[in-house]
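Morning!

This is the sequence you dropped in the shared folder:
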Amino acid sequence: MKIALRKVELIAIANQELKARAGYKEGMRITNAEMKDHVLVLYGDGIISKEGGFHADTAEVFNSFVDWFSKRYTLIE
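The structure's back. Tokens below.
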């Protein structure tokens, strides 16, 4: 069974969990969450460099985290 949280709590826990994740890089963070149908969708910063370049390794860490996190948590709207 998934843990259901309100948006503010869910984002706070997501950011704590993300920071503890292997491959975390400074600046990565979850900025928003929403439900699309029955799927938890997380939005974040830190995948694109300040210069506008895409970091494939950071994107992989983020996507892997989102997949793992969305299996454990859901959003109460």
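Headline: DSSP finds two helices and four strands in the chain.

More detail when I'm at my desk.
O.
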